[in-house]
Design brief:
By secondary structure, the chain is of the alpha+beta class. The protein has helices at 51-65, 69-80, 84-95, 119-135, 149-163, 170-175; strands at residues 2-6, 13-17, 23-25, 32-34, 99-102, 109-112, 192-199, 211-216, 222-226, 231-235, 241-246, 255-258, 263-268, 271-276, 282-285, 295-298, 304-307, 315-318, 324-328, 342-349, 355-361, 365-371, 377-381, 397-400, 406-409, 411-417, 423-432, 435-438, 444-447, 451-457. A hairpin with a 5-residue loop joins strand 8 (211-216) and strand 9 (222-226).
């Protein structure tokens, strides 16, 4: 039986066949993903990490993300019964975003911390795949996995397609029928037009490196945050590089917002940190009334709103001085059934103070929940499916413009709805949209991690 869930690294939809094991590879970001425990039915195959070890490994990765490497090493040693040197090496690899292998049976478990992609490793992986296809048949009796030529080609195609722009050695390029380049995004003529596209993958000025967070300041400048490494870039409205500064490079950046006073709000380690948006000078941590934070936005009046994830879907609203003004508990989960657990949530706010939450719940359900400025539930709209007005499991961003139009970033498109939730159309894009930002003029900025697109509604 085929089931689906979302990749925790890139939010792409994943399919899982019963008996595939506890770890599968995401074809979009190529990370190895732990399958949710309630979906695992079969016992682990020979050489594969068992369920208890997988659960402990999740804790180890959490400790690494919290910069608690010593505790991670201790837990790794006790979980897998290995020496200090081996445990330290494994934790170091996971910290750097590299893969580790658990077991050497017929189906060794390969685990990845989700720390980011590395092009250099891609070529190494390709060579390992090819070598496996040549030598493993000779060693099949030794318990290693045997690849067919078709499987090898498919895996390399997926790797190269995901990385994009990788130039392979001549021999590989000649032998392998690689996928064609991703087409450039185009806007649906009936709704919006593509005004500008900039960025490109890289670490230089103006280049994007897994850039998921995006915000527009009152000056019109654009702020882009890399998911890993702490880099915050400042671009002018035309996309030209202005400056950059750094947040905590050891922690993933979950969310970013900038107010009209020039203060940037960053979410790292479930906390909100303030910075001077122009210089990057730290301004201190904000109180969150004990809540774990995953998203942060700023409304037109300068109020900061923050929200947790599936563990704590509470919205905390702050006054312009940074003090907690109001708390709205369990805004989404309180409207779900017992068998409809919340999986993920993304927050937006309109000019009147109404709040919108793009939520995924009950496995494959996706909808937008609407709340009044006082936190009262209004309605919900949308669902999972293939119809024009339905969402995929990749829906990962939401924003609202000055006319009350609601934009939802999804795979290959941005869906547009009226303030009442009526479907208006969509804007075609490349890849999955992770971040959306709307200007005062209702121009739409969107990022798919390696490019930024600027769209303008037709007739505006």
């Amino acid at each position: 039986m085929t089931e689906s869930f979302r990749c925790p690294s890139c939010n792409a939809p994943l399919r899982y066949e019963a008996g595939d094991g506890a770890v599968i590879t995401c074809e979009f970001c190529n990370n190895s993903i732990l399958v949710p425990e309630n979906m695992r039915g079969a016992a682990p195959r020979p050489g594969e990490a068992n369920t208890d070890q997988i659960a402990q490994l999740e804790k180890i990765i959490d400790l690494i993300h919290e910069n608690r490497q010593i505790e991670a090493i201790k837990l790794y040693r006790s979980t897998f019964n290995v020496g200090l040197a081996e445990a330290k090496q494994a934790v170091d690899q996971l910290t750097l975003g590299q893969a580790i292998v658990l077991g050497m049976g017929a189906n060794p478990t390969v685990v990845y911390s989700g720390g980011g992609r590395r092009v250099g490793c891609l070529v190494t992986v390709i060579m390992l795949i090819i070598l496996a296809s040549i030598f493993v048949p000779l060693l099949a009796g030794g318990g290693l996995t045997v690849f067919t030529v078709g499987q090898v080609t498919t895996q390399i195609q997926e790797l190269v397609s995901e990385e994009g722009g990788i130039e392979l050695p001549g021999a590989l390029a000649t032998v392998l029928p690689l996928a064609t380049a991703t087409p450039q995004p185009t806007a649906t003529p009936a709704y919006a037009e593509l005004v500008q596209q900039f960025g490109g993958e890289g670490i230089g000025p103006g280049k994007l490196n897994d850039t998921r967070a995006i915000a527009v300041a009152g000056t019109g400048n654009l702020y882009l945050g890399d998911y890993q490494g702490g880099r915050i870039q400042v671009l002018d409205p035309a996309g030209d590089f202005v400056s950059q500064w750094s947040a905590n490079p050891e922690l993933p950046l979950r969310s970013l917002a900038v107010d009209r006073r020039g203060v940037a709000y960053l979410v790292q380690q479930s906390k909100i940190f303030r910075y001077d948006a122009a210089s990057g000078s730290p301004l201190g941590e904000m109180p969150t009334a004990g809540h774990l934070i995953d998203q942060v936005v700023v409304n037109a009046s300068g109020q900061v709103l923050a929200m947790g994830d599936f563990i704590d879907d509470t919205i905390v609203r702050f006054n312009p001085d940074g003090q907690v003004d109001q708390v709205f508990e369990k805004v989404v989960s309180s409207h779900l059934g017992v068998n409809e657990p919340l999986i993920e949530a993304h927050l937006a706010v309109d000019g009147a103070g109404a709040m919108y939450v793009l939520a995924r719940y009950a496995g494959t359900e996706v909808a937008v929940f609407m709340f009044s400025p006082d936190g009262s539930y209004i309605n919900r709209f949308g669902s999972y499916g293939d119809a024009p007005d339905q969402f995929s499991l990749s829906a990962s961003a939401i924003a609202v413009d000055s006319q009350g139009r609601i934009y939802v970033g999804d795979s290959q498109r941005i869906l547009v709805f009226s303030s009442a939730g009526r479907y208006l159309g969509d804007i075609e894009v490349s890849g999955v949209i992770f971040g959306l930002a709307i200007t005062d003029q209702d121009d739409i900025y969107a990022t798919n991690r390696s490019e930024v697109y600027l769209f303008r509604p037709v007739g505006q």
